[in-house]
Amino acid sequence: MKVTFYPYQHPGERPKTDKAVWTWHKVLFDSTTNLLDEAGKAMATPTGKLALGVFSPIEFFHEPPLRRHIVPFRQGMVLEVELTPNDKMRTEHLDKSVHPSWIAEVIHTVGYYSLLRWCGAKKSDGVFWVHTANAAVHPVGFSCAYRRADRSSGYAAIPPNIIFDNHSTDEWCKYAKERVLGKFTPKESFDDRAKEICFNKFKVGDRVETIDDDQSSIIAPATVKRILGRRVLLEYSKNDIDKADHMEKENMWKDMNDDLIYPVGFAATMGLEMKANKKYKAHVKAIADAIKEGKSEVPYAKNDARKEKVYQWRKNEKQTAEWEVDMVCEMIDRLDECQNVLKAARVIKVLPDGFLQLGPDGADIISDSFHVHQTSPNLFPVGYAMEYSIALQGPKGDNEEVFDWKSFLKRTNYKPAPENFFHCATACNVAFKVGMRMEAIDQNEKMLCPATVKAIKGRLVLVGFDGWDDEYDQLYDFRSNELLPCGWGEMVGHALQAPVKTAVEEGKVLQAEEVSGDDSDE
Question: MBT repeats at which positions (predicted)?
């Protein structure tokens, strides 16, 4: 059986993209036979459902673009797909002014990818993979709607060359209608998906504040240099930092809702130390004064990211916890290289508007601290690590590897933050299963990598990067926007890194399988 991959065409414009490094195409090709076998079995069962694949379904992720469009995709759904540019129907039989499209039926969906078969194709033919965001994919009725709106548009329902001879020309229209009758197809709004794919609340040139990479307790101004999907590349603002302090700092990729991105004026409003020149400090002092005095006119610059824009992620968050100085908890330290452990953390300051200054306890707590909102998913109650068999790192210099909360609290008189201060989600709320494949942002190098779920630890998902050793595993909240469906990188133009080859042959590392929900590890 010949299976093809429809070349990706982005719907509309998108920012400058990365050079492609690796794609899921080979994995999908290797899985096609299994998927077709599963599809055949499913059609013979009363439910008509495919077994759950090891690829994480798009509905398992928190806020993936196009979720509302792709979740309804199911086996037997029909789409209208434009013929590929190199289809012989286009190159040998039709005028260049004609834009042919034909109906295809969904066999299976894997992340953002769908396995389709042209309607009218023989069982061993006409099967192809396509990215669901592809500009060539439409709801059925697309070509007819275009022709009604503009007869000179050239859009027409014409089958691909490989199946054209299966029916006479007069029979094609009747055949197509019979195939789509009673079948589901996406809503018309599916063709407006370009804006949703590339949505980002920031724009290039926006100015924000973030942590200083030399000392995380200090705030520094930064500007958005580049955007890829929901990710932003921040560059410390040379115009706002003295040359002596600026030096050569690395740019930082962050999710647009990263809780270490702050609005302009954050440090001044909170009374925090800031690495900035006199001009910028005077600018944000005026902003802070206006906010404190309740003035309706706040002197923001045109490119300043305001509180309303930056804090969109907090629109549904309730602030009811009454944190206190020296309260302790456990946390994932996103600034540390080791991302598969929790650390004992302590509150240094309780700041306005629900923010805390806290850090990993120990002699360097001040310099290692940072400012995070009390609703951060990276904070956990005392005892969380023990409950879910996660390594817990104690204060520096305090026998970190064999840390015990009971003796530590007795010795220090610190107060554990009450459990109701933290997110109450548990493993029951996590849809991911062990063995599921996805794309994940490496929280150290900020690269996008193929990854696999290795364990569920309460509301945390332990993810391993394909081919890498266990020591590089990382923990993510199950709602993290750094966990993404397969195909996200190709869609937004973000380079997906290749899996590391291990002693196991590459084919086995990358091979995808079909498993049932009952076979998945809990």
Answer: 170-277, 403-499
Q: Please state the rounded mean pLDDT for residues 168-182.
A: 74
My answer on whether 193 and 278 are in the same domain is: no
User: Taking the model in full, what pTM does it have?
Assistant: 0.90
Residue 248 lies in a domain: yes
In tens, the pLDDT along 264-274 reads: 999 999 999 99
pLDDT tens figures, 36-55: 666 555 444 444 444 435 89
- In this structure, the answer to whether residues 212 and 254 fall within a common structural domain is yes
Q: What are the C-alpha distances in Å from 300 to residues 260, 296, 358?
A: 20, 12, 29
Question: In terms of domains, do 193 and 45 share one?
Answer: yes
Using one digit for the tens of pLDDT, what is the confidence trace for 480-510?
999 999 999 999 999 999 998 653 444 444 4
Phi, psi of 346 (to 5 degrees): -135, 145
Mean pLDDT (the chain) is: 87
Which segments within 300-414 are labelled E, that is strand? Answer: 327-331, 341-350, 355-360, 370-373, 379-380, 391-393
Tell me, yes or no, whether 422 lies in a domain: no
Distance CA 146, CA 440 (A): 39
Q: Is the pLDDT of residue 156 over 80?
A: yes
Helix or strand holding residue 365 (H, E):
helix 365-368
Higher pLDDT, 465 or 171: 465
Residue 228's H or E segment, with its range, is strand 219-228
In a domain, 83, yes or no: yes
Using CA atoms of 338, 339, 340, 342 in order, give the dihedral in degrees to the nearest 10.
90
Which residue is listed with tokens 């036979």? 33
Q: Which residues of 99-122 are buried (b: 16+ CB within 10 A; e: fewer)?
A: bbbbbbbbbbbbbbbbbbbbbbbe
CATH number at residue 254: 2.30.30.140
Q: What is the DSSP letter of 364?
A: T
